[in-house]
Amino acid sequence: MSAIADQAGKTVSTAGESVSQPPKGAGPMQKREARLAYTMLAPTFLIILAIVLGPLVANFWISFKPVELGDLRAPKVLINERVKGKPQLAGDPATLEYRVRNSSQKNSIADAGFTDILPPGFTAQKLPDACSLTGTNLTCNIGTLEGKAREKLVIAGTVSNEYLALKKPEKASKPAVFGKADSVLTNSTFTLDNFRRVFDSDEFWSVLRVTFYYTIFGTVGALVLGLFAAQLLNTSFKGRGILRGLFLFPYVSPVIAVAFTWVVLLDPFSGTLNALLTKMGVFAEPVNFFGQRAVDLHLFGTSFEFPLALSTVIAFEAWRYFPLSFLFILARMQSVSTDIYEAAEMDGATPLQQFWYISLPQLMGILSVLFLLRFIWTFNKFDDIFLLTGGNAGTRTLTVDVYEQGFALSNLGAGAAVAVVVFVVLVTFATLFIRFSTKEEGL
Amino acid sequence: MRLLNSYVLSAVSGAVWGFLTMIVIGVTLTLITGELAIPQVGAAALAAALGALFTHLWEGKTASIGQKYAPAAIILLTLLAATFGAPFALPLSVEPLWQLIALVSFVAVTFWANRQTLDGTPKGSLTRYEKEVIFLRVAKGFGFVVFTVMVALPFYVMVMTSLKSQQQLLGNPLDLSIDLSGGLSGMFRSYIELFTQFNFGTYLTVSAIVSVATVILTLLFSVPGAYAVSRLNFPGRSWMSRSVLLIYMVPAIVLVIPLYAVFSQLGLRNSLTGLLIVYPATTIPVALYMLQGYFKGLPAELEEAGLMDGLSRLGVILKITLPLSLPALASVSLYVFMIAWNEFLFAFMFLDDPDIFTLSRGVVSLNSSEVPRQHLMAGAVIATVPVLCIFLWFERFLVQGLTAGSVKG
């Protein structure tokens, strides 16, 4: 080993270097490896850049734009060509009429105009100022066409026999329009109105509060249910595989299927659950689980408002996602060696003590990682609430509000502004999550 | 605490069992027959408590066969006496067969549960350990029943509602029995209508194409990426492997508005191409993450041997790494398939043309007041069955992949 090092040192020194050193920086092999790695990662990187990171930035851009859903269609020049006057003989006068219109109600089109070929056998005699004629090629420059603007260009002329022989000579060529429309998405108009609108509305703060209730209780609910389910299935018995499969059903099924099933099941008029509860005398009246904002509850002499629809939505969330935490917790529990429980048993620890002092501490790592993951995912969740209540009855979360502002109220800019709020809150969580995961080494 | 001796505890546990079993059996009886069977919980709790007490009293090596099974008779007689012969508040002439089955199962379940709960419990005062064992046995049973009902009930309602007609549903929402009077075509009326009039055949095909294509695209992108992250050394490698998961946390709703705007301009919005660009982009990060976890677990020596023997990198991946990671590939494919099949938001936002609806989008279009709800439920069943079948078939892979890829212990 040392001989080789000496040799290397000698070669280096003979090459004129005074001190022998290990090579610095990446060698050719390493460079090639890195290049290969980048090539292999490039497609992934590009598609994520285009579909995830690009839109993320674009969302910030849109949130500062006064853009509505209708603005996505760029304003266009619409044109209609027809012949006035009924020429019977060659040499009769006729007028060719072009009606030009801006499709947009708001936005103007700059340098608008059109080109056309005159109908065969039509000789123009008087051209409007905007138009010029080269042979039979007509070019008309209208200039700026304001929103809602209409223009009428009339060309007087005479017809020949060739014209009369044709049925609809003006349809022989279609006018081609041109014009520069300024898209709201790409121009340099910026506004803070979207954010002002979002933060000024009374609803925003209640939406934020509902979002946090939903996220926290939905996450905790799913975790607690998952923990219990994992406890149940941590012993081996006949039919355990079947039950494990069954417990995963809510998570595996499409959200539309389970959400609509809950809606049908809990329907106040024809839902099975309400029919059961009222007929068996548990409730006097059917309960509109997804439609009622709050019910007054009287407990121990105090009465408080119980947010019914929100609680039902949270219950759904916990029901649908407990299988995920159940799987992870079960996997973790099965990796705990049984020796430790046997030792505890010998020492006379009761089952609950074993759970509290042995199982739970070992599960803390996975539980906290699951909590953070589920917290973020629940916060991001849109489909569930949208399908269950549409965000009504006090269940509107931030994500549903994005849809509500952007698409239901057709104000894309305001929707994007809410999405920015979603993202900012999320980045805060993600920062926490990174800190946590490096400590826990769970992921 | 002295009060909680074995006799009191056995009676209490019996009462819990009676209460729970009666509710479950009563509700089941109601849903199966459509007749309102009000569970007589008080009587049931009393009967099962007495049964439990005598089970405990007569337990032991000296017990005769008669003493062993007498508690069942005690449960039956107490229940009948306390409910005046109508254990489900129904006259005996209504659905006598079902009532008999319900009664027998009540007695059998409570009797068996009592025996299981009190097995090996010493008589007299109990230690904390012994008390907790009884408590946990009851709690576990309770948990099993609650979880099973909680999960199974919605699916049962979904399937049964889809088999009913509008009149039946409005007439008696409690009746979720199988009605064979209309024959098979009467039972599956909703399904037949969905496929003939509502275009569900197309939706099914489109969903299948989109999901399978998403799986293929995702694998094409994520396998090389995962390999690079797990095996090759390059600056930014650890940063890469961590940030990949962060991408998975970007909420879809934040992407929807810009993508909607851009895709509208490009003409990609109302097209399957658009979906096939978005779906892989959202699944690649998680697939890459799961795969790199698995690749890291494979012994690197095998690949080095392949390289020594003159295989190129591509050859190593194709001939050594991929065959070794078939289970991981299977579970990633399954997971991605599930995500694509169940995806709702982008399908809902992007697709307007009923000819290219995916199932999720198609079922949402059934959610209107003009379409009867058994159609909605039939649509839900059609959307659920394929993904559940695939899941049950490959459950092992999915469970392993989900947990092994991301949990290190």
TrEMBL record, chain A:
ABC transmembrane type-1 domain mapped to chain residues: 208-433
Composition bias type Polar residues, residue spans: 10-21
Keywords noted in UniProt: Cell membrane, Membrane, Transmembrane, Transmembrane helix, Transport
InterPro entries in alphabetical order: ABC_transporter_permease, MetI-like, MetI-like_sf
Record's GO cellular component terms: plasma membrane
One family name in Pfam for this protein: BPD_transp_1
GO annotation, biological process: transmembrane transport
Record protein name field: Carbohydrate ABC transporter membrane protein 1, CUT1 family
Organism annotation: Pseudovibrio denitrificans
TrEMBL record, chain B:
One GO term describing the cellular component: plasma membrane
InterPro entries according to UniProt: BP-dep_ABC_trans_perm, MetI-like, MetI-like_sf
Localization per Swiss-Prot or TrEMBL: Cell membrane
UniProt domain ABC transmembrane type-1: residue ranges: 204-394
Gene3D superfamilies in alphabetical order: MetI-like (1.10.3720.10)
Coiled-coil ranges from the UniProt annotation: none
UniProt keyword annotations, A-Z: Cell membrane, Membrane, Transmembrane, Transmembrane helix, Transport
Membrane-traversing stretches: 7-32, 38-57, 69-90, 96-113, 134-157, 200-223, 244-263, 275-295, 316-341, 376-394
Name of one Pfam family that matches: BPD_transp_1
One of the GO BP terms on file: transmembrane transport
Membrane topology field: Multi-pass membrane protein
Similarity annotation: Belongs to the binding-protein-dependent transport system permease family.
Protein name as catalogued: Carbohydrate ABC transporter membrane protein 2, CUT1 family
Source organism per UniProt: Pseudovibrio denitrificans
